[in-house]
Amino acid sequence: MTPSHSPRLLADIGGTYARFTLQVAPSRFEHTASLLCAEHADFHAAVTAYLGRLPEGLAPTVEHAAIAIANPVEGDEVRMTNYHWQFSIEQMRQRLGLSTLVVVNDFTALAMALPRLAPSQRRQVGGGQARENSVIGVIGAGSGLGVSGLIPLSDGYVALGTEGGHTNFAPRDEREIAILRYGMTLYSHLSFERLLSGPGLELIHRALSERAGLVPEGLSAPEITRRALDHADPLCEETLQAFCSILGTAAGNLAVTLGALGGVYIGGGIVPRLGEYFDASPFRARFEDKGRFSDYVKVIPTFVVTAEHATFDGVAAILAAQLRTLHAEHGSAILGQIQRAREGLSPAEKRVADHVLAHPRSALNDPIAEIAKAAQVSQPTVIRFCRSLGCEGLSDFKLRLASGLSATVPLTHTQVTGSDSVLELGVKVLGNTASAILQVREQLNRDTLVRAIDLLAAAERIEFYAVGHYGVVADDAQFKFLRFGVPSASVTDPRLQLLSAKVLRPSDVVVIISSSGRVDDLLAVCETAHARGAPVVAITASQSPLARKADVALIVDHVEDVATHVPMVSRILHLLVIDILAVGLAMRRGAESVSALPDVAAVGLDEAPANAVLPTARRAGPGISTSGPLSRLTSHSR
């Protein structure tokens, strides 16, 4: 249970029931209880009710919690699709007095449990043999339809957070066409979830009643299932048979979509209760019914998850990974930024940094006077520390800190190895890039962005300066801003940069792009621009000389060893910051500029009109194009 030995609160929240347990050791759960959601006003009330049932003195020992919820989880706000509960993750953590609160999609959690299942915790339906180190699919019906998958890595798996249950229902026979027609009288979009769920089972029963010319009885899903399993009602049996057939179609679609040669697992609250009936149902035949691809899916095994606590196991694994990350690497982007910047701080600012790293929760909640007292510094020193990280002040710093400490799923960087397949390589590159993008998102500062866009909007001319591999970022910026009718230039040759900077005017704005912020040529450009009265916007690393010299610094902290590798992720991050500035300027300039945005995204530099660079020609100055062959002579990158 390291790094904390206290019991951990786990929950599995659906549209009908909220299940809770305490994890007291790996795969050991105690005090498990199911509460009806309808009996509690909101999520906080349900958690409080569960904690109130625990033995006296146990609830206060809970420091960490993880919630698997039947809902997409993006950012801090959670709004359930199939129920009315909604809450802020960070506010809920504070109300419950927790150190950590992780919230993930329930089928992401179930997917993470699959590699940990013992053979006795799953039951194979039909033939097929799982291929090792292959993609795994997971699907299951309950109050809704959950869909997820696992992508294998060299040291584990990455779980996919999807909403695949909302894909369009596709009928395969006359009976299902009748179900589709009935469903479309109720919904403009009939998804698989509308049928493969508890409410969906009831909808199928009503549709088949109408097809048979019968008056629907209004039976509940549990009653339909009971009558079908007891062979007490032919219409209920047909309903359950149709349900299993449609689930076979959805599972087969998932198998071919993901290439799930590692198998497809069926979870949720309905199928595991069907027992042997499901094994003998049309599910497997429909799963294999894929026309030209039938041979492909026949070798893919399908399993019913029979483990009682599978979702708890999965969400517990995600929480454990989050706690390891927070313990070993201080978790959030802002804390990692403090670690990297610490050596460049003053002695007093270092004491503030050490206090925040050692007590991030206290720093998040304490007023400035308490933080200053704990770090043995003055209150202005605390403010200087915050601003040294690119924050506007203490409140902005706390917002970024709260976002990092309340992360939903840990962000990771996975090393590419020589033994990786092409698929594994692609997954790792995309995953690493996505992780870096999300970390930069946490670093964004609203006021800094507004000031940068204000400067660009007021500029008569904008010049973009970069060297080496980052020259393409400056070229891309020039093209985008020219598309908006803004006179712009990309200056990427160090020999021309100082000459160009010497003819800047106060009405011009300089944008300097540098990953390290320590390139002498670019620092000289910054000083020359200031001498000419032109403001400087820098896209660079925090605590760098360029960040300190610029009028506005947009922070991109991503370390790449450019002495031995061509920069990849950092260059993408700089391009994205340019896109943010371009979109911001377009919105500021009005609808006409906004309408050009799709063209900016769709048209490459090689497709630019021949006269696109005409507005960049100077009326006086070097008289040399800065985007020509000379700009590509440099091979160094900083």
Automatic annotation (TrEMBL):
Pfam families: Glucokinase, HTH_6, SIS
Gene3D superfamilies, per database record: 3.30.420.40, 3.40.367.20, Glucose-6-phosphate isomerase like protein, domain 1, Winged helix-like DNA-binding domain superfamily/Winged helix DNA-binding domain
Enzyme Commission designation: 2.7.1.2
Gene Ontology cellular component annotations, sorted alphabetically: cytosol
Disordered: annotated segments: 617-638
Positions contributing to ATP binding: A11, D12, I13, G14, G15, T16
NCBIfam families: glk, PRK00292.1-3
Name under which the protein is recorded: Glucokinase
